[in-house]
Amino acid sequence: MLSVKKTILFISLFIISVSAFSHFGEAITRNIIIEPINNKGSISVHVRSPAPLILLPYNWAGIDKQQRIPFTKIEKNESEALYYLDEVDIREQLPQFKKIIMKEFYLKTTEGKRLEYKVGKIKIHNFHDRPVFNNLDNAYIAMSGEMFPNNPLELFDAVIDFSVTFSGADFSEDIFLVSTAGEKFKATDWLVNVITYPKSMNIEVKTIPGTLSEGVLLNHSSSSFIDFFTMGIEHIFTGMDHMLFIVLMTLSCSTMMLFFKNVTGFTLGHMITLTLGATISTLEGTWFIPMIELAIAMTILYMAAINLVKRSDVSHWFVSFFIGLIHGFGFSFLMNKVFVQNQGIDLHSLLGFNLGIEAGQVLLYGGLILIFTLIEWLEFKWLKQWRKGVAMISIMISLVWIYQRTMVLIPTLV
pLDDT tens-digit profile of 142-154? Predict the structure, then answer.
């Protein structure tokens, strides 16, 4: 008979298993290119932003609710409602459209004064056909021609390029770039800002994950390494499937020597594929991400079964190395999207993210060892079977994930 505490624990873990479906989300890049205008006390900024980041209202509750979105029109079919950008409405109300673009994007001085601005050229592209936008020359080319392409644009497949000139300041004083767009939608989980500077400033590129609500000091260099190191640590502790695997792998080791061998094998494996997956742009098949997520769920089932059967050398270090290869591809999806969308590789960001992943895992390993040692030291009677209990619950959780991820993978193979 299950006690109340055990029942609550079981239900909580089951809910976690259902909610923690997609650990390895895709990143969306917002490109920001800075252009100082000499002798005019002005700064031009050229931006490429996902259209939803600009247009979705604060009370957005999902496509199923069919809410009204400014400058869009809804077309319904049998299965869903699609939002298309309303070209006629945008052209007729262009000043209002420009205000919405700039509603959550501005420059300010150290004293908090917002700089006056004037929006210039606007160009809207299909995300899948967008031209390169990774330096000043490419930005001007991308924004040339008509505002809209020939074909209708679906909101969630569109990017908006725009130029805006800020007056009343230049880089002789501290200027902060601020954007609060995406705060309500947890953009810190998927948005990456790539800020490009003129070579004369000796900064070149900053890569900053998340929103820019705290402001970025434009005329001083910051470290992409530090930003992505922090992001790597956070990435570890937001992935329930990866953390569950680490718990099970730690439990499976009967000696510290075996623990260090398995951790070393696992770490080497995922460092290799994290780097490989982040830098190779060919891993874009619709089947690849679901396949890797399914494989990760299977590794959890495997490690849980080992804990249920026997704590011994069944899990050899080269098995942990192979499993690390699988988990590394999972970690690489985020960085791959950043590099592919920016048409270039930032080695400082990649190294920072990779080492952040390792630092997060070290913290997790250390915490687990302390907890497991304390449990063994207490020698409570009800703890005698706790390892098998964790393994059994993990098997049930992994089976839920395997079913969910199989249902996502199958349509991509048909």
Answer: 999 999 988 889 9
For residue range 231-249, what is the model confidence (pLDDT) as tens digits?
A: 788 778 877 888 899 988 8
| Residue 127 C-alpha from the chain's centroid | 18
Task: List Cβ neighbours of 355 (8 Å cut-off, separation of 6 or more).
Answer: 229, 232
Q: Give the relative orientation of helices 256-279 and 240-252 as an angle to the nearest 10 degrees.
A: 150
Q: Other CB atoms closer than 10 Å to residue 123's CB: what's the count?
A: 22
Q: Cα dist. 93→100, 130, 412 in Å?
A: 11, 24, 41
pTM: 0.64
| Among 47, 328, 63, CA closest to 195 | 47
Displacement of CA 89 from its chain's centroid (Å): 33
320/263 Cα distance (integer angstroms)? 7
Closest CA to 152 of 171, 134, 125: 125
Alpha-carbon distance 352 to 281, whole Å? Answer: 20
